[in-house]
Amino acid sequence: MPEFYRLGMPKEEINKTLLTAVLEAQPVVDGNFAAFTEDGQIVDSQKTAADFAPAPLDRNLTLYVDASSGSDSNDGTSVGNAKRTITGALNALPHDLSGFTATIKLYGGTLTADTYAIDESRKRNGIVCIDGTNMDSGAQIVGDMRLAGRCDWELTNVRLKGNHIDAGNSVVRVETIGGFTMYGENVIDGNSNLQNGILVLSANSTACIYYVTFRDCNIAISTVPATFQRRRCIVCAVGECSGINNYTGIYASHASLIYDRTTVSLGNIRRVTIYGGLIVDNSGNFVKE
Hints:
globular; disordered N terminus
């Protein structure tokens, strides 16, 4: 596939700008692009970014990622033609999911930080599900996950390990204006208590977190509405989770409500509420510890 550049701009200055514009389906300045072949011949200089954006979904879609044998140059529509990275699969999806579900099934071995990143703020109107059921035994995703956009996100049967050393970071950081669900046999490793497990920042969001083992986290589950200044809130349900060597289990802050159905403490400190955050136990009582 040729690379697309705005006429008259140096290649090194506009690669990132044009890539962002194409993905967002927005024209750059005057909306004119030039497509160059490898030998430098102009193919078309009147394309807008919308000409290159994937079409909205018209049905549920499954894409495949194989960290061991895949390639991001593949179309990802079968195991034998899998993408190599989650990012490669996300880039193949349209921004408008049209109410459908896009499932990304993971195969093969561990996805490292070099091949793993989710910083997708443009997906909307649908569900993106990342399913690690078919990964190799012991394989995991090493790297921090940021889930953004205006869609719902689902994670199932994944093993995640953070790789940042800043204690303020989180292995899973939820910023979507939508819902978040994590279910199945999941493991989140906070990298020697340096990171939080799941941090829910979205305003007007709902989250359901079930069947997750949190290991070596600073805080297992934390809700802190990023735009609490607008008086918005988060509602989060937690159940059937377990914790190993976490400092704090559940932390509710700034107009967030956590419904805690866990039967055991996820951390040395079971629950913390601060700045108007609320936690309700399985009996319907407001609790603070």
